[in-house]
Amino acid sequence: MKDSEKNARFEAGMATRRSVLGDAHVDRASAAMTPFDEPFQTFITEGAWGSVWSRPHLTKRERSIVTLALLAALGHDEEVAMHTRATVNTGATPEDVREALLHVAVYAGVPAANQAFKIVKKTYAEMAGEAKK
To answer: Model-level pTM?
Structure first.
């Protein structure tokens, strides 16, 4: 892959990452980056955000729902909370998230869904509290 293609993928990925997770989150991640994890940050910006999330076939809402279901099924609690927060930017509704977690219960197990429901409820409550400030 040419450097210009990598740069274009990085730029597309960064734009998508910012639109989904928000500038504040991406700015914090960038500020915390060190030479040790810089290659990883570049990898996820190009790969996850530039190669997958930037594809046109699924909407950001649909990708958000799929992502939450996968993260819940795999037990990635911090990522479930982060992507729950991102739903304000992707358009995935609480009803969408609930339906995704019901699928998790059937296909990945009730304990995984139970944990995810707890995290999502807590995250929504935190978001509501922040909105009142």
So the answer is: 0.91
